[in-house]
Amino acid sequence: MKAYVDKDACISCGLCPSLCPEVFEMEDDGKAGVTTDEVPEGAIDSAQEAEQSCPVNAISVS
């Protein structure tokens, strides 16, 4: 399973790294980014929660 952040859509709210710090972080450009190639098994639920909670639908996890 992989996660992706659409940098053009991201509004830098910081919700995704607060919900799933194993996968997401705020990067130097102020936008969220993905820290791993594959979502770790133990972080799948929180990564999907971040996807569903993103206010601008900038995250996809599949």
Plain-language structure description:
The chain has one domain (3-61): Alpha-Beta Plaits (2-Layer Sandwich). It contains 2 helices and 4 strands. A hairpin with a 5-residue loop joins strand 2 (24-26) and strand 3. The chain has helices at residues 15-19, 44-53; strands spanning 3-5, 24-26, 32-34, 59-61. The model has no long low-confidence stretch (mean pLDDT 98). The longest helix has 10 residues, at 44-53. The strands form 2 sheets. A two-stranded antiparallel ribbon has the order 1-4. It is α+β, with helices and mostly antiparallel strands and 62 residues long.
Structure keywords:
62 residues, 2 helices, 4Fe4S_Fe-S-bd, iron-sulfur, two-stranded antiparallel ribbon, 24% helix, globular
Please, how many helices?
Answer: 2
What's the SSE pattern?
A: EHEEHE
Q: Give the biggest beta sheet.
A: 2 strands, antiparallel
Oligomer: single chain
Low-confidence stretches: none
- Overall structural domain count: 1
Give the N-to-C terminal Cα separation. Answer: 5 Å
DSSP E strands, number: 4
CATH-level-2 architecture: 2-Layer Sandwich
**What spatial order of strands do you see in the largest sheet?**
1-4
Which CATH class?
Alpha Beta
Percent helix among the residues? 10-25%
Organism: Clostridium rhizosphaerae
InterPro entries: 3Fe4S_ferredoxin, 4Fe4S_Fe-S-bd, Fe-S_cluster_ET
Protein name: Ferredoxin
Keywords: Electron transport, Iron, Iron-sulfur, Metal-binding, Transport
